[in-house]
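Quick note —
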Amino acid sequence: MHSRHFGLYLFLAAIVAAIVAAILWLAKPEAITVVIEKVEKGLVRDTVANTRAGTVKACRRAGISSSAGGQIASLPVREGDLVKAGQVLMELWNEDQQAQYALARSEHRAAIARANQVCVLAEVAKREAQRLEKLQLKNLSSEEAVDRADGQARAQRASCDAAHASAEVSADKLEVIQAALSLTRLIAPFNGIVAEVNGEIGEFVTPSPVGIPTPPAIDLMDISCLYVSAPIDEVDAPRIRINMPTMISLDAFADQLFEGKVRRIAPYVLEEEKQARTVDVEVDFLCQEDCTAMLPGYSADVEIILDQRKDVLRIPTEAILEGNKVLLVGPDRILQSRVIETGISNWEWTEITQGLSVDDEIVISVEREGVEAGIKITPDSKSNQQG
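Predicted structure written out below.
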């Protein structure tokens, strides 16, 4: 009787154990899928980047306006034209000044001719006085005649000097009229491309009033040399130096990076309402040939390289949690929390100085729900598991 009861108890206990095991198995959490990556060696850079989009600018750009008012008489260039230094870009009506210039030039030529004539007479009078002085030594000429000839020679010499001075005055007058005439012409100060023309033939232009900016008559740019101007946070600015290497990216060339170097750091901080204070940094393109398809005004981002180390242990920066921790894939795909020590870093990579080894596997997708130490994981198809 007792053995029969004992067997029944064992049977019931086995059923209960099976039920408990089934419940525990059903209640067991499923493995979470995460992106993992093996720790590797490579290049790590310490960089700073602009806080807002930078702008591609021309090394030389001139907004050219007339300093004199008048009617546009000639406009030999159009927007997009390539021009040479010294080429006329716009000319105002100036026929009256051209007539004055022609008259002054003729007067100058006449003044030079008169000066030459008077100076020739002065030379003749001088030789005549010298001849009479020689004759006086032989008692063949009177003292009175010699004095008279000497006076005439000196008077002619003075007339010669006065004629030359008058010619110089006419030359100066010619330059004054020429300067006034030049105010009616806009001349290209350098080789470039005409970016904008404000005006048409027959329209009147007036000089800009003092303190009131107005659009230039001609906007000229030298696009053979381009650079990027970008705002850098004031906190990062003290670490930047002239000639530091940079990487430049442009929205218009999404798949291409351009090498550059810092050319200028503004000596002041910009204050803009409701925005962080920044310092403008200018960056040259190292290979200007790469800029042939670029246009001033393109948006650009710069990443200034403060330091870089090759062949060091590194992990993606996004894998680092608060407190300098990472989630390490342990035995049986169970995640472990690991404290690490880091070196230089940027938005992409961080140098690891202690806490990890080559080929350790860490979780990259730490932002996924439920990802924490102690859970079991399954590698995502995006995982990088080399070797």
